[in-house]
Design goal:
By secondary structure, this protein is an alpha/beta fold. Helix content is about 40%, strand content about 15%. The chain has a seven-stranded parallel beta sheet with strand order 4-3-2-1-5-6-7, sandwiched between helices. Strand 1, helix 1 and strand 2 form a beta-alpha-beta unit. The protein is globular, with a radius of gyration of 16 Å.
């Protein structure tokens, strides 16, 4: 494990539910603690529920900086975490995702549902289009993402995804290994589809 990671802040996508197995909650707690211990700020969806809340509470408990970004509609449903260092309230889900990406130096997806997957695939698509060159990681707890990765390999074989784009996604089952791999990742050169892409 490197003594210093090249991330000021990492954005973590995770669930508003804790999942069926306790290991998912344990992974969120471990990641929160690890980010705090290495001085890496956490950027996340701003909720107090599910693995989102466990992740944020763990980072805060260990002295980490936690920034939440949440749309006004969810604040009104009283799921916003009120104990964060910063809470950014946006007027839409799209603005939320854009702000989270702007604040982060990389992205990690914990096991989660539709929202987690949608956020991961969107920020990964932005990397494919050349909007950013930040590392992306999957924390593959209890082999949760194995079927997804198998499907992605099929999409590469069928020539719907370029091999270089799949390589942008780092996957590991343990937090130290994932952070180390993301820290040393050298993004492969890929063609930027837009002449003047938005920078995130």
């Amino acid at each position: 494990m490197p003594a210093h990671y090249p991330f000021k802040n990492l954005c973590v996508y995770c669930g508003s539910n804790p999942g069926r197995q306790a290991i998912y909650a344990e992974a969120a707690i471990t990641l929160g603690r690890s980010l705090a211990e290495h001085g890496i700020g956490l950027v996340y969806g701003g909720a107090k529920v599910g693995t989102m809340g466990l992740l944020a509470d763990s980072a805060l408990e260990h002295g980490g900086k936690v920034v939440g970004v949440i749309p006004e509609a969810l604040v009104q449903k009283e799921v916003a975490h009120r104990g964060l260092n910063e809470l950014h309230v946006t007027d839409s889900m799209q603005a939320r995702k854009t702000r989270m990406a702007e604040l982060a130096d990389g992205f990690i997806a914990l096991p989660g549902g539709l929202g987690t997957l949608e956020e991961l695939f969107e920020v990964w698509t932005w990397a494919q289009l050349g909007f950013h060159n930040k590392p992306l990681g999957l924390l593959n707890v209890a082999a949760y993402y194995d079927p997804l990765y198998t499907f992605l390999q099929q999409a590469v074989a069928e020539q719907f995804i370029k091999p270089a784009h799949l390589k942008r996604l780092t996957m590991a089952s343990e937090v130290p290994a994932l952070l180390s791999q993301m820290a040393t990742e050298q993004p492969p050169p890929v063609k930027k589809w837009l002449e003047q892409p938005q920078q995130l």
